[in-house]
Amino acid sequence: MLTNAELRRGLRTPTATVYSASAVISHPIVPLYRHRPLGHVRRWRHPPVYRPLVDLSTMEERHVIITYRLDRATILELCAQLEADLMSAIRHPTGIPPQVQVLSVLHFLASGSFQTTVAIASGMSQPIFSNVLSRVLSALLKHMQSYIVFPQVEDLPTVKGDFYALGHIPNIIGAIDGTHVALIPSCRSEQVYRNRESYHSMNVQMVCLADQYISHVNAKFPDSVHDAYILWNSSIPYVMGQLQRHCVWLLALQQQVPFLQEDGPDGGAVAAVEPVDSEDEEAEEEDIDNRNSVILQYFQ
Question: pTM for the complete prediction?
């Protein structure tokens, strides 16, 4: 009987005999270990250590805002909220820290650059950054409802007061407009995303409050879809219909439009848009200029 040491050295290859009813078959036993020369010293592999190239503490506040479009306090608060979700996905204690994951994704979203470029600047490879991107975006979607909230009934007096203090316009609870978000579409639907300026984008509808907080986002439609179609296929008409008895308005670029309750074809509540007619043409033009100056603060 050979010992394990003799098998590791490969001094000889023994044979085993297998008895069967028909014949006797002999086959060699393959050693379980590869041959190593005598005196060989095995070197243990050290675990990889991630050395981050991004350090928020060493950056100036102006540089932080330019790079990530957020200030330092907001980024640290966001990292603290996403830390639990990002730490659960780290399999190794020397993995990428949650703060580096958040900073790399914010840089990618703020710059619109390629994944490879942002990955190199963050100290990781492109495949790793691709996993980090989907991980951070999924964590952000989980907390989205905590930040993007349309004003409720109890919030209407405060929201109206903020807009009145800003532009002296009564009963306003939001400024609504669409914005173009550029993207690279697939070849099968390239013509759907082409806009009037000959580049591809999404037509995103947004509603902002007086303190520049976003209260509604509708990012379902390409740029070839009209703004009115996006409005009527969002939740805004239904929500404004529920609030009609509170005399609330949304501020648009061209005119101030109230939402009135009507019966839709399916018997449900639908919001109808009715423009406001003014007898004094000069006063109406002045009101439009005031409204445009207010809403352009959010969407320029």
Answer: 0.61
